[in-house]
């Protein structure tokens, strides 16, 4: 009896159940860890794709296996730990080479303990380079490189449900531009981001919704693509208006009285246009996990 109770408690913490899950489309589920991370399970006839895995609290694999018994292929939109931590519940994962650089580096504090307890902390990584069509069985998912927020970012296009999964590159609230492998100028980042938005716009006839990894979902594509392109152009031209406060949807204010996970990234700034918003650093900041 005690053993049964322990198993039932794997995914319960002081706030209740760690993970919530709900069906968003046929054979398609969203799972969240309550920390503002959204991951997606796409079930094909042969296997299922899990897009991102949250930060490795509890055991996300149990949640996935409550939904499907199919073989799971773990694919990461990019290498930030809030997307890759739970990979270590499986023996292997797929991501870009650039995403793999920090994928196994837990954020500071409790994340390190959670990660160390996982079955496969040294899981095998297979590289994706973009352009692949991953066949789940009567359901193909296209890999589209869109690196700006992170060097390793991809979007995943599922024509079957007419859905685009965009990771952290196109989001409500904000896209952050300061947690990267390498520092490059804000203007250069905006050029890359604009190019990616045009790439997604070119495939617009193939999807109706964008499913992001944080904040509000789903996103109506046209306004987000157009406003992000317009904001990218204002940054490139030097006309973007910097707001007085960084506070946003799912993002802390620059009032340092509250715990702010981004204190190591220098002074941060927010720019906005329509539904698009970026937060960037005055320093050309790169990845910290301390
Ligand atoms: Zn990210």
Automatic annotation (TrEMBL):
SMART domains: Lactamase_B. InterPro entries: Metallo-B-lactamas, NDM-1-like, RibonucZ/Hydroxyglut_hydro. Pfam families: Lactamase_B. Residues 36-214 form the Metallo-beta-lactamase domain. It comes from the Bacteria. PANTHER family: METALLO BETA-LACTAMASE SUPERFAMILY LIPOPROTEIN (PTHR42951:SF22), METALLO-BETA-LACTAMASE DOMAIN-CONTAINING (PTHR42951). This is Metallo-beta-lactamase domain-containing protein. It comes from Blautia argi.
């Amino acid at each position: 009896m005690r053993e049964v109770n322990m198993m039932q408690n794997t995914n319960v913490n002081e706030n209740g159940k760690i993970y919530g899950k709900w069906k968003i489309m046929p054979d398609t589920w969203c799972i969240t860890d309550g920390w503002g991370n959204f991951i997606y399970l796409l079930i094909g006839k042969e296997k299922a794709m899990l897009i991102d895995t949250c930060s490795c609290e509890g055991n996300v694999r149990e949640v996935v296996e409550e939904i499907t018994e199919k073989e799971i292929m773990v694919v990461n939109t990019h290498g930030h730990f809030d997307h890759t931590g739970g990979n270590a519940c499986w023996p292997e994962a797929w991501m870009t080479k650039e995403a793999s650089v920090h994928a196994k580096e837990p954020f500071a504090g409790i994340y390190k303990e959670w990660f160390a307890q996982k079955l496969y902390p040294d899981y095998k990584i297979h590289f994706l380079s973009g352009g692949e069509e991953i066949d789940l069985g009567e359901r193909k998912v296209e890999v589209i490189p869109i690196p700006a927020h992170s060097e390793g970012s991809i979007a995943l296009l599922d024509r079957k449900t007419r859905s685009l999964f965009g990771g952290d590159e196109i989001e409500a609230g904000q896209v952050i531009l300061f947690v990267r492998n390498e520092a490059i100028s804000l203007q250069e980042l905006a050029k890359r981001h604009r190019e990616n938005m045009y790439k997604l716009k070119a495939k617009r006839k193939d999807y109706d919704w964008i499913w992001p990894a944080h904040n509000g979902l789903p996103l109506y594509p046209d306004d987000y693509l157009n406003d992000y392109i317009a904001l990218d152009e204002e940054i490139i031209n030097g006309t973007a208006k910097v707001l007085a406060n960084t506070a946003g949807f799912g993002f802390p204010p620059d009032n340092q009285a509250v715990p702010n996970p981004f204190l190591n990234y220098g002074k941060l700034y927010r720019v906005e246009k329509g539904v698009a918003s970026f937060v960037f650093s005055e320093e050309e900041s790169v990845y910290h996990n301390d």
